[in-house]
Amino acid sequence: MIAAxxxxxxxxxxxxxxxxxxxxxxxxxxxxxxxTQVLQLNADEMKSATSIxxxxxxxxxxxxxxxxxxxxxxxxxxxxxxxxxxTPDNLTPESIDHLFRLVxxxxxxxxxxxxxxxIVKEWKRND
Length: 127
Prior knowledge:
The protein is an all-alpha fold. It is 83% helix and 0% strand. Helix 1 packs antiparallel against helix 2, helix 2 (24-57) crosses helix 4 and helix 3 (62-83) packs across helix 4.
């Protein structure tokens, strides 16, 4: 997600603008505009992810509603089994690291989806 990159992107933008534009007030204005655009991209990405997850959660099929949570439980189980020493020989530490990252991403998507769902319910209630 872009959110993790925003500080790095802002720093790069700042350095490039400072070198390219000698007028400090113009440089600050441009940096603010570019940073706002990066933040808007991040917000758009989160809205898109939320809508996808909400569509899955509200789907007609049991499989559509539950494939992501089931997969996350499976991956989390594999990671937990590794920590307790119950793993197949072909499951390497690198594989466990990748599985753990997938679980982190999945949990993050779940949190964003649930937050979006609660916001929509509150918004509809206040209309």
